[in-house]
Specification:
- The chain is of the alpha+beta class.
- Helix content is 50%, strand content 13%.
- Strand 2 and strand 3 form a beta hairpin.
Length: 210
């Protein structure tokens, strides 16, 4: 994709969100990079489909969409913003080296971030943990279970990796994710627990059989 041009602050917010695993609240961003994603910057990124934002409580929570992750990948080979000096240019050269490593290793940026943050859980184990949690909650095969109920059953599994595992599982013929049809019934917790798939927030999981 051709990257949208952003000023230094907006680039820092997108890349900062990426380094936090792709999902963070405004207080987390403020503590991590010194900025919150709010105002015109949030509106623009939401409209461009790079970030999905919810406000389950007092603070906004933001999640990189697939296009947001793609923007970050392209930015690894980008040019440093003007007036960042030699340090900025050097850091962007480091990012370009990282892009080369990812391409050579056939590793996605999201997978790299999970590994680098030390959040990695064996994929097969996590997939099985999701299935086990589903069958503890479901009354019968194909019963729709809210992710609000499922996520607490997964212990300390990192949010970014659970989301990625759910997206992988949805490609299987027996696994289905769906948004809640009646959005008015959703609580703030339900919206927060949703997984973003191709720009759509999905709140429910169903598995056909054991």
């Amino acid at each position: 994709m051709e990257n949208t041009a952003f000023a230094t602050r907006e680039r820092a917010l997108l890349l900062g969100l990426m380094t936090l695993g792709g999902s963070a609240s405004n207080p987390d961003l403020k503590a991590h990079i010194g900025y919150a994603l709010d105002g015109a910057a949030r509106t623009r990124m939401n409209k461009l489909g790079l970030v999905a934002s919810d406000k389950p409580g007092r603070a906004y929570h933001h999640t990189l969409t697939e296009d947001g992750w793609a923007w970050c990948v392209e930015e690894l080979s980008g040019t440093a913003p003007a007036k960042t000096g030699s340090l900025g240019r050097t850091l962007y050269q480091v990012l370009d080296l990282l892009r080369g490593y990812l391409d050579a290793s056939d590793l996605s940026l999201a997978e790299f971030v999970v590994k680098a943050r030390g959040d990695e859980t064996p994929q097969d184990d996590l997939t099985q943990a999701i299935r086990d949690a589903y069958w503890r909650l479901a009354r019968e095969p194909q019963d729709w279970v809210l992710l609000t109920r499922l996520r607490p059953c997964l212990g300390d599994a990192p949010r970014a990796e659970v989301d990625e595992a759910l997206r992988r599982m949805e490609r299987l013929p027996d696994v289905h994710l769906a948004p809640e049809a009646d959005q008015k019934t959703l609580t703030g917790a339900d919206r927060e627990a949703a997984v973003l798939v191709s720009g759509i927030r999905k709140h429910l999981l169903a598995i056909e059989a054991r």
